Amino acid sequence: MNRVDIKELNRQRVYQLVYQENQISKPTISAKLKISLPTVSQCVNELIERGLVSEKGYFESTGGRKAAIITLNRDIKVSVGVEILKELIHLTVVDLYGAVIREKFIQFPFKDSEEYCSHVGRYIIEFVDESQIDYNMILGVGIAIQGLVDKKTGKVTFGRILNANGFDAERIGKYIPFPCELRHDTERAAAYTLWHNPKINDALYVVLNRNLGGAVIINGEVHHGQILPSGLIAHMTLIPNGRTCYCGKKGCVEAYCSVDSITRTFNQDLKSFFFDLRRGQPEHVRFWEKYLAYLAGAIYNYQILMSTEVVIGGLAAEYLTEEDIHKIMDMELQGSNIAETLPKIWISEYNNTSAGAALIYIKEFLAEFGITGRYESVEE
């Protein structure tokens, strides 16, 4: 390794440590990385010149000269996320820690047309301008859509919910001055939960949204299947010849466990349903017991195959209680003659698909410094 390579490596290691700690002194960097203080000072100065870190104030003295606080410029680079839904778009901008700086919801029904794409492009630009963000700070625009996206072509291969087969990022990208990429919405929702829960190793992420979604996580990363995305639990058969799913098949988990299956049954929104449920409305309680049994059956089918924990996110997640989770786990075991216990099920606090889409470019930027994800010690 030549001197240039060593210099670059040291700079990367210093940036990694500042990113991890958020606030740190040069002497501490020197001690932790076992790099000389003059070398640390040179690395910090170069990072300051690039706008990546700053000196902001001083730590309290421990007897000698006060040490300057080196801190990360977390918003020197940002990324924009766009979630495309049937009736609206959700715009988000996140910083280098994945924290949401600003977000906006716009009622705008999806239509596979140039007019729709040009309007979305204009909304993105207006959102950036309203957020007072310099265009040079934007790493890119991640777009999440309700549809399966081919990894190689970037096109929607199955988009029956939106009637968006063949849709790709370039349809919107040509109307904005930023790079953009299109991904499956459930994958990006799972990515956001993973970012905020870096200890997750192997799991199934289930998103209880208007339409059900799933993603398998292996070794801390969303797993991609050879042909289709992994974790399409929504289209596993739960009840043979049962209710018709939007995919055209009968008896899918989607038809029994999506938020749509709740709101359509009672002709009320999710908040109203759970209000009536928690106050003991008999028909709501009976329905909920059946719903949990269906969900338990779907999760059991997965866990008996993969034997990993299950993380539940999405719109319905904020209404679930620990009692609901315990019921699901009890129902699983009641139907099992081969297991006395199964991996845990828990609720994700982090449910933001748009922010998950924005993380595409944040992760790419950080990877240049050898940073593979968010650190738990960082406070937002």
What does this structure look like?
The model is unreliable at 376-380 (pLDDT under 50). The longest helix has 25 residues, at 282-306. A hairpin with a 3-residue loop joins β11 and β12. The chain folds into 3 domains: 3-72, Orthogonal Bundle (Arc Repressor Mutant, subunit A); 78-191 and 353-367, 2-Layer Sandwich (Nucleotidyltransferase, domain 5); 198-347, 2-Layer Sandwich (Nucleotidyltransferase, domain 5), CATH 3.30.420.40. With 380 residues, the protein is an alpha/beta fold. α1 (3-21) packs across α3, α2 (26-33) packs across α3 and α6 (185-196) crosses α12 (353-367). The strands form 4 sheets. It has a 5-stranded mixed β-sheet with strand order 6-5-4-7-10, with helices on both faces. The protein is 39% helix and 20% strand. The chain has helices at 3-21, 26-33, 37-49, 114-130, 170-173, 185-196, 254-257, 259-266, 270-278, 282-306, 322-334, 353-367, and strands at 23-24, 53-58, 68-72, 78-84, 88-94, 100-107, 138-145, 148-149, 156-158, 180-184, 203-208, 212-218, 221-222, 309-313, 345-347. The chain has 12 helices and 15 strands.
Quick description:
This protein has 380 residues and is of the alpha/beta class. The protein contains twelve helices and 15 strands.
Topology:
Elements: H1 3-21, E1 23-24, H2 26-33, H3 37-49, E2 53-58, E3 68-72, E4 78-84, E5 88-94, E6 100-107, H4 114-130, E7 138-145, E8 148-149, E9 156-158, H5 170-173, E10 180-184, H6 185-196, E11 203-208, E12 212-218, E13 221-222, H7 254-257, H8 259-266, H9 270-278, H10 282-306, E14 309-313, H11 322-334, E15 345-347, H12 353-367
Parallel strand pairs: 4-7, 7-10, 11-14, 14-15
Antiparallel strand pairs: 1-3, 2-3, 4-5, 5-6, 8-9, 11-12, 12-13
